[in-house]
Amino acid sequence: MSARQPQRLAVVSAGLSVPSSTRLLADRLTEAVRAELAGAGREVDVQVVELRDLAADIAKNFASGFPSPDLADAIESVTSADGLIAVTPVFTASYSGLFKSFFDVIDNDALTGKPVLAAATGGTARHSLALEHALRPLFAYLRAVVVPTAVYAASEDWGGHGDPLTDTLPTRIARAGRELAALMRDLPGGAARADDGTDVVPFAQQLAALRPE
């Protein structure tokens, strides 16, 4: 019986400032997923891709058609992961150009079937619909499997109570983390790598268990 291998989680952050609320949200989502998987006895290998550091490489890729070694490593981290957290700031009511450009240089079939948690940050809650009209269609086009809960964090969400109609930010982060972890645990590839005789619970059954009574 082989040892259980850690599951791979890629985290893409398109924040531009340092420190960045986009990276902060990415880190909190990562910890939520890690905690859920740890509760199921699964270790997680996290690879963070900071797009700010790859901006010039992404632009050169469009001109040359070839990724730099650093960009190639980032693409490999994302495409080979068992799950993906993708977080972007909202610019002009949509994802940032840097965020879109990164996913434009990835092969259209590379994310097929991959569990994805989509999230975004912005200065006002009015931009929260960017998750549904921009991010979710992007990953649907790439044939990824996007978890039901997409997380948007406006400026007032940090350290506040948020909108009582949509729950607080920590509540939404925890719920999204549970959903992504459930998808990752249910991956046939992950089960095959583990090879430990553990029964795989169907994803529909796992989601049903997450619904409130």
TrEMBL record:
Q: Which SUPFAM superfamilies match?
A: Flavoproteins
Question: Boundaries of each NADPH-dependent FMN reductase-like domain copy?
Answer: 8-158
Pfam families referenced in this protein's UniProt entry, alphabetically: FMN_red
The cross-references to InterPro entries, in alphabetical order and at most eight, read: CE1759_FMN_reduct, Flavoprotein-like_sf, FMN_Rdtase-like_dom, NAD(P)H-dep_FMN_reductase
> GO molecular function: any one?
oxidoreductase activity
Give the keywords, sorted: Flavoprotein, FMN, Oxidoreductase
Q: Which NCBIfam families match?
A: LLM_duo_CE1759 (TIGR04037)
Designated name of the protein: NADPH-dependent FMN reductase
UniProt source species: Streptomyces bingchenggensis (strain BCW-1)
Q: What is the lineage of its organism?
A: Bacteria, Bacillati, Actinomycetota, Actinomycetes, Kitasatosporales
